Amino acid sequence: METQKFEIVSTQSNIDWVGRKVTGAHNGTIAVKEGEFILNDGKLAGGKFTIDTTSIKILDVTDPATNAQFAGHLASDDFFSIEKYPEATLHITSVSGNHVEGDLTIKGITHPVGFDAAVSVNNGQLTATGRLVIDRTKYAMKFRSGNFFKDLGDTLIYNDFELNVTVTAKAA
């Protein structure tokens, strides 16, 4: 069995996020800081990567003052607590076909996640894409969640948010 290791190229990797609420949605990006993938006989077998929570950006709010206020709220304890937890991690625990299982840690809280990933390797470069749907309340992000607060009306924020991940890695 041939084992290959690929180091993530952070400048060629990113995560697009989408958070929804009753009245619409917000979207933005968050950076992949570092990580690696392990392939056995050309197939994804494991890996881990680190997400830089301090890099979160909001793309759909164009007013600078509103954007800064929103970014500050995402950085606060209501959401990512980035001063205490500047990183989140995903550790791949198993792969079956194109389905990946892993442990996602946000705010020091770890839960299993499962998602489908497309992985390709060409000339020593690995590209991986996947879409994760995360229940934010599992990671102590309860702000305006219908699970914890009543009568929110159109201020309710849905619990699930999406992470659309695109990662590039080079053979180590």
Keyword list:
172 residues, mainly beta, Lipocalin, nine-stranded antiparallel sheet, 9 strands, 7% helix, 61% strand, elongated, YceI family protein, TTHA0802/YceI-like_sf, Lipid/polyisoprenoid-bd_YceI
CATH class: Mainly Beta
Helical content (DSSP H or I, runs of 4+)? under 10%
Identify the CATH architecture: Beta Barrel
- The end-to-end span amounts to 17 Å
Structure in words:
A hairpin with a 2-residue loop joins strand 2 (14-21) and strand 3 (24-40). Strands 1, 2, 3, 4, 5, 6, 7, 8 and 9 form a nine-stranded antiparallel beta sheet that branches. With 172 residues, the chain is mainly β. The chain is built from one helix and nine strands, in the order E-E-E-E-H-E-E-E-E-E.
Compact summary:
With 172 residues, the protein is mostly beta strands. The protein contains one helix and nine strands. The chain has one helix at residues 64-75, and strands at residues 3-8, 14-21, 24-40, 43-58, 87-96, 99-106, 109-122, 125-135, 157-171.
Which secondary structure elements does this structure contain, and how are they paired or packed?
Blueprint: E1 3-8, E2 14-21, E3 24-40, E4 43-58, H1 64-75, E5 87-96, E6 99-106, E7 109-122, E8 125-135, E9 157-171
Antiparallel strand pairs: 1-3, 1-9, 2-3, 2-9, 3-4, 4-5, 5-6, 6-7, 7-8, 8-9
